[in-house]
Amino acid sequence: MIEYLIKPTRSEWFNFPQDSSPYHPLNMPYQKMEGDLGGARIRVEECEISFSYEDPGIQVSFDSEVTQSLADKIIDEIRKSIEEAVSEPAEVVQIS
Asked: Which pTM was predicted?
């Protein structure tokens, strides 16, 4: 499983607008998924991806097999979507 942490660089937490749903790649097709994990879930290509709030940021987990290069591409697109929603830069850290 490949996992990343997306965290804000200028504040302690992201200040999402109320109508915002930035948990998706900015420029790639995706599908929202149903899930009972308590967080957002999407599918990009054949990858199932889940999101959860953690103390230092948003944990993004690739729950299915994916190449490192595709995971890096998708996480960069998700980072861009979050940055666009909050008008603030974000940092991505791979945690596994």
From this structure: 0.89
